Amino acid sequence: MLTKKGKYGLKALVHLSRLPVGQLAFVNDIATGNNIPKKFLDAILGELRNAGFVQSRKGKEGGYRLARPADEIKVGHVVRVLDGPLAPIPCASRTQYQRCEDCNEATCQVRHLMLEVRQAIAEVLDQRSLAEMRDMAVDDLPVVVKVQA
Amino acid sequence: MTGRANSIIIVGGGASGVVMAAHLLKSPNPDLRVTLIEKRPHFGQGIAYSTLLSAHVLNVSAAGMSAYADDPGNFWRWLLERGLATSDQAPVYAPRSLYARYLKELLDELETRERETGRLRLIREESLSITPTTSGVEVALANGTSVVAHLAVLATGHDEEPAQGHAIRMGSEADTALAPDSRVMVLGTGLSMVDAFLSLEQRGHSGDIVAVSRRGLLPSPHRKGNPIKLDVADIPLGTQLSYFVGWFRDLIKQNQKAGIDWRDVVDGLRPFNQKIWQNWPASAKRRFVEHTKAWWDIHRHRMAPEVYARVTEAVQTGRIRLVAGRVADIARNGDFTVQVQSRHTQVLETFEVARIYDCSGIVRDISTSSNSVVRSLVDRGLARPDPLRIGLDVSANCEIIAGDGGVSAKILAVGPLTRGTFFEIDAIPDIRVQCARLSKRLLG
Description:
By secondary structure, chain A is mainly α. Chain A is built from 7 helices and 2 strands, in the order αααββαααα. In chain A, strand 1 (54-57) and strand 2 (63-66) form a beta hairpin.
């Protein structure tokens, strides 16, 4: 499941994607603008920098900006970095597998179905770019209405 | 279906051309016309499978070498049926000449089967150029004639670029007889160097071999195993290279702790290699090619255990000397005086050698390709090199991208030419999947 960390990270990136190319944002502005605890945001932005999604500059004029265009960064890329393997429940992961204490993974039908669900999650999140997600927020009309209009 | 392209010319009748033809001809469409053009006297050989040396074995075990994506056991059964392997054998690394025979027989069978339908035509001639026309494409041949079709698929494989400077290609005309005890230098320490060593042994050469590459790394041997199971949901995509490498190293460490061989982790990643590559930013791709690829290659592109044993023995006895460094200077004085600067100490070392073989396998700029079809496409702006200049720029659907960025609906490419987009597309297990997908897209 998407954790708070994943959600905050995506919000911060959407915030950065709204800025003119190259312009830096202060961490404080991102935090207050999106209702994210500042200390947590610092840690999240640090991880996003290590993965190559944002760049930072230190000092009074410092801050963060996207390391590459928002249409190149896919939502799934970001979620894997912040939350680990995409998985609806902890046992439905092959690299970060966490055994459920109360069931047998070999015969658990729930796990089998959830392994399928994670493929579907990956398919959706790896298709959608940060730019698409940003533009969705501006226009919350249902897709059907837009097509008819 | 009306309007669907059903006449297709495949330029290049080496392994990837034959595999492409075989997949197209799986279509039941009676109007399909496939023309396969090859300049060499034999189809199905190309550069890779034209060696007659029995020590030159496949670098992939027979179980992985079927020509058909949906029938992975095809080559293995072919070997069993002819008594060339037995079912209880450990992984079999068949001679490449045998693989050429497999592809030839496969094509012969197709030719026989399609004789009455007229769906397959083989042309032994060099192709000079491809030109788009209003209704399709025209391929000009060296004999002055041309062939037309709706589509052309480039399957020209590896470039036969001439060697650079004083170095020569093994087996080329310049590769004349040598005194058996003379010392030679090989530029490169990868699988091509191994091939060169085996060829020299076969010729009775007994002199020292100095093999030089930037890192001086020898490819690893295969070992029987089971690739670990991964899903795309497990794999970090689209990150910077260092992040991905860190993740992958950790994954190997974790698995090794559980007693799993690193090969099974490397091989477990294989189904996702193209996806990983395609999701990387341009900077990660460039860094990978410059810094990480040499390490990746020796772990990913391995050799048969028997070959590895021969090579490592030669290294241990001093017959082969692996040098990590770069050639700083070559002086000709009858023989060659080569100065190599060590990667680690920066110290120059001088070697007197009778011959220098180019086994560097470096992919050079495609716009200077020795293949006239490829070069003429680039010269006329109908194609362009990919951003890394390791192949032609193609779409994820194998369509050639023109100099102005326009995607061609009529000229496609498969195999090593498409490595800028498909990354690892040199080996049959990957090429056959690419050909199967393209056939399905073209013919349904």
